[in-house]
Every structure is written in C-alpha cells, then in structure tokens.
Write a structure and sequence with these properties.
Order of helices and strands: EHEHHEEEHEEHEHEEEEEEHH
Distance between the termini: 36 Å
Number of helices: 8
Number of strands: 14
Shape: globular
Helix content: 25-40%
Structural class: alpha/beta
Oligomer: single chain
Radius of gyration: 17 Å
Largest sheet: 6 strands, mixed
Strand order of the largest sheet: 5-4-3-2-1-14
Length: 265
Amino acid sequence: MPSLRTALLQSSGHPGDVSANLQVLGDAAGRAAAAGAGLLVTSELFLTGYAIGDAVPELAEPADGPGATALARIAAEHGIAIACGYPERDGDTLYNSVQLFGADGSRLANYRKTHLFGDFETAYFTPGDEPVVQAELDGVRIGLLICYDVEFPETVRAHALAGTELLAVPTALMRPYEIVPQTLLPARAWESQLYIAYANRCGLEGEFHFAGLSCLAAPDGTARARAGATEDLVTADVDTESLKASRAENTYLSDRRPELYASLV
C-alpha cells in the first residue's frame, strides 16, 4: 500500500515579499525532497505572508497567475508535490486559498477557505463554498482545508466520508490557541480516522503572534511529527496500510447512524 513522506514548513517567511517567500520555499523544497518527502505543506497565505493588511487586493492573483507558475516550477525542479497557501483573485472577489501542485509541476487542486477567522480575514476575503476538494497523489487521496476549517468536526468528517486519507492544512494559528495543535488535531485524526498535516506560521508578524507547533496527526491519535515555536521543517510518513488497519479497528465511520443527525443541518 502507498506511503507518502510529508514535510511541514513552519515559517512566516517575508510578509509582502513574494519573491523572498519563493526563495524560502525553494530551499525548503530541496531539503524536504532530500529527506525523501513526496509532499511539502506550507503555512496559510505563505506566498504573500499573512499580515499584509491593505496589500491583500494588490498581492492577490488568479489561480493560474505568476505565483502559481513559480510554485509549479519549484515543484518540478525538486520533484516534490507542494501545497501552498495564497490570496486568490477571481475577478473582483478575493479568497484565502491553497493550491496543490504535483511533483511534475501540474496543478492538481485549488481550495478556498470556507470558514473565515477574525476581522482581518472577513474584511478582505469571501468564504469558499466547496467543502471537500481532493486530489490523488502517489496513490494517496489528499484533501485540502485551511486553518480554522479544521476546527469544525463537520469539515473533517466530510473529508473522511469522501475517502480523504491525508488532510493538508496550511495554517496561521495564533497564540493563545495552542490547544488546537496540541489536543484538537490528534482528536480530529482519531475520530475521523485520517492523517492531518497542519503547517503553521510562527513568531511575530504585524499584530499577530503565531503559535508554531506544526504537526502531522495520525489516526491513532498521536502526533508523528511536531515542530516547536520557531522556524522548522519536520517530516513524517503517511502510511495508508496503517490507516486501513486503523479504520478496521476503530469503526466510527461505519458505525455512524446518519438518520439520527438531521438536526445538525
């Protein structure tokens, strides 16, 4: 069964400087590929930085814009798939998005954040309306969410029911919400029986103080890799054979009784 080594880039990069952020990403992609990783996940809005304020409309670009071209080139150069957060422009509408590129530079998927957090995001972005976006990567079904999305059990369960095996989650989690990577994510991975690759920003950035603690949570409720509070690149393996065995032993998904849950919607 397929196994996918996954790398998490914990970095705030250079807010407002796309070129510098691409250099950081290129270096991380090279190191991740050298460590045997087949997928690199960045933080939320990594391409531009998160704390860019009124520069959002100026720096946002289409899903097939110059940033996407540069990301595809980096993926192909290092032979590693990349999930990268960026501000997306679709006409006059802006989205907080993540795009997944294959190791050959092909564009595999684009997801728009469905649950916006805080005054900054709601002031500039429109929430997406497609809850489950997936792609196949090296035999592993990848799903995409962004930060606050993963804090809703419904979104993760929707992915599990759609067959997602690994959720890639670019993140900009701030202090003092360390409970999310420390407690909530292992619980989400356990209750929905999948892997979650949660790549956070770190340090001070404008008015925001990011918590770090990027992790890869596994379906047994453990963190297979976890960063600290500073810049880091961590890797861990996603093993679909172990996931299959875990789902057979932990039968939350098959034991559901959807006919009882109508009040939830």
